[in-house]
Amino acid sequence: QVQLVESGGGVAQAGGSLRLSCAASGRTSSSYQTGWFRRAPGKEREFVAAIDWTGRSINYGDSVKGRFTISRDNAKNTVYLQMNSLKPEDTAVYYCAARRGALASYDYWGQGTQVTVSS
After folding, report:
1. DSSP 55
2. Sequence-separated (6 or more) residues with CB below 8 Å from residue 75
3. Residue 83 is inside which H or E element, if any?
4. Could you give phi then psi for residue 48, rounded to 5 degrees?
């Protein structure tokens, strides 16, 4: 089992920045990939970004490319999501998730952290 805990959410003004953290504990593995997803009220869950264990394979959702940066510190078992140039439409609950490999489903999820961007 892998436990994931997000932190760093809050309120920011449009154009501002926030950094989210996802701390993993339990049965962490070098093969795990970590992703960030978000769900805004009344909308479907949306893929935000993902990173593999090495940090060399990174993907972003179209709506955040050029504004968000995903990174990881394996010594701390933590994945970060740096969010810059925030927009009101970035308002959502942000979740981190982990999976065993690129072809696996995301089996482990955190509890989510709220991000609110005011205009």
Report:
1. S
2. none
3. strand 78-83
4. -110, -55
